[in-house]
Amino acid sequence: MTGWMRHAPRGVAVSACGIAAVLLFVGTSAHVADLLRHGLRPYDWAPGWLNPYWSSPALFDVLAAVFLLRGERRRLDLACVVVATDLGANWYAVYGLRHSDLAAQPGLQRLAVFAAVVLGAAPFVRRHLSR
Fold it and tell me: CB atoms < 10 A from the CB of 1, how many?
């Protein structure tokens, strides 16, 4: 555990570590795998702006996780922005472009749950981070 986590309540430290772990090991690995397999345009059906966006979490997931573990308050905001925009982009792709729904998309279901956890935990974790 990093310095700030030693002084934070256990639940806050566990939440921060869990969020960072998912960002690093699930988010980053999925986006890097897509980049390695398909390059910057993994989905032919997606608009030009959406493909590079889907590649960007390969970098931003890592940054958000590292900054969160370092205990910087405003960097937690990056994690919130990353998961919220990732959820928004995927939701748009599922409903607006693919004409599917949440029930048919287990990946979107997992992302929605993770976004809810991050956004729900953020106010409690943020109180214990440095300015």
Answer: 12
**Residue partners of 113: CB distance under 8 A and separation at least 6:** none
Number of domains in the chain: 1
CB count within 10 Å of CB 115 equals 20
Query: Is 3 inside a domain boundary?
Result: no
- 15: containing domain: 8-126
Q: How far apart are CA 9 and CA 1, in angstroms?
A: 12
Domain annotation covers residue 131: no
Query: Has residue 1 been placed in a domain?
Result: no
Q: What's the distance, CA 69 to chain centroid?
A: 14
pLDDT tens for each residue of 75-126: 788 899 999 999 999 999 999 998 998 899 999 999 999 999 999 999 999 8
